[in-house]
Amino acid sequence: MSTEKEIELNENQVRVSSVLNKDNKNYGKKNLIDGSEETCWNSEAGSLQWIQITTTTSFELNSIAIKFQGGFAAKQFAVEYRQADGTFASIAEFYPDDHGKLQVFRLPSPHLIDQNPFRLTFHDSYDTFGRIIIYLLKIYEK
Description:
Blueprint (H helix, E strand, L loop, with lengths): L4 E3 L6 E3 L7 H4 L2 H4 L7 E2 L6 E5 L5 E10 L5 E9 L5 E7 L7 E12 L4 E8 L7 E9 L1
Antiparallel strand pairs: 1-10, 2-4, 3-10, 4-9, 5-8, 5-10, 6-7, 6-9
């Protein structure tokens, strides 16, 4: 990823589908982007969890790095972009491994993100109850 640049995110640019027991202090969205491998976002049970990101500038999304908790990784997730009519369309789909190491997911080709939200939609989890746990989330542009 030496030719890529990380997109810095703040808490106001990130939304999540749910937080375990509504405990935002210990499991909230800020833990996705705080750079610490000691904190995490932990979703509630149930399938179709998501992370939505809205940036303040346009950029070409090239790759996404995620560190899941082993046993709580997504089996599949899609990168989706909000269209003019408000619906989300898939840009790419990925199938993460179920372990606790950082995984990098490269889009087939860079996709222009022009201040419209994009989502990481987790369709299934290795956890029996559908929970997703993520320690690190990084977004890269070309």
